[in-house]
Specification:
- This is Elements of external origin.
- The protein has 169 residues and is mainly α.
- Among the domains are: 7-52; 102-162.
- 65% of the residues lie in helices and 2% in strands.
- A two-stranded antiparallel ribbon has the order 1-2.
- Helix 3 (42-52) runs antiparallel to helix 4.
- The longest helix has 34 residues, at 102-135.
- The radius of gyration is 29 Å and the shape is rod-shaped.
- The protein starts with 6 loop residues before the first strand and ends in a 10-residue tail after the last helix.
- 9% of the residues are buried.
- Mean pLDDT is 82; it is low at 56-67.
Length: 169
């Protein structure tokens, strides 16, 4: 997927968020940040729209009117705009490689864990005879003990929550 510029014209930004250029101009008048060259920084623009069209803040001026139908239609339009902006933000973050597919991540982590497990078990097979020779011990007994200990260690690691393995970075 080709990456887009992080700065867009008002027209391109309007298309990204699913609004008209006129609506973007209204939002600019309300404070949507615009660069000196008239272009909009996509990340800043998306953040501003999300913040300023946030459903939790939509009644900032008071409760909606009691007329019902008009307030409901206005709120539906506003919520629709918010959803479009959120979708645009996700698409932009995907273009910037800030998002990954969850299923792909699970498959990758599982494959890596399996490869590491297999590497540790292969290490036992390579190391046990060398260790037995160095210590003058029975190679079969050394392999059996080392294999058992490695499997217990791997089971212990498998039981740990992922967050507990964090290096704090």
């Amino acid at each position: 997927m080709t990456k887009l510029d992080s700065h867009e014209t008002k027209t391109a930004f309007a298309a990204r968020v699913g609004l008209t250029k006129g609506r973007i101009s209204q939002l600019v008048a309300e404070g949507l940040p615009v660069r000196a060259d008239g272009r909009i920084d996509v990340a800043e623009g998306l953040a501003w729209i999300e913040t300023n069209l946030d459903p939790a803040r939509r009644y900032k001026g008071g409760a909606p009117s009691a007329t019902g139908r008009t307030a409901t239609l206005a709120e539906a339009k506003r919520l629709h705009e918010i959803v479009k902006v959120q979708r645009a933000r996700l698409a932009f973050e995907r273009e910037q490689d800030k998002l990954i597919d969850a299923d792909e991540a699970r498959r990758t982590v599982f494959a890596r864990a399996r490869a590491e497990r297999d590497a540790h078990l292969a290490w036992v097979q390579r190391t046990a005879p060398l260790l037995a020779a160095e210590l003058g011990a029975d190679p079969r007994a050394t392999f059996a003990a080392l294999d058992r200990m490695m499997r217990e260690h791997l089971e212990h690691l498998a039981d740990l929550p992922l967050g507990s393995l964090s290096d704090g970075a």
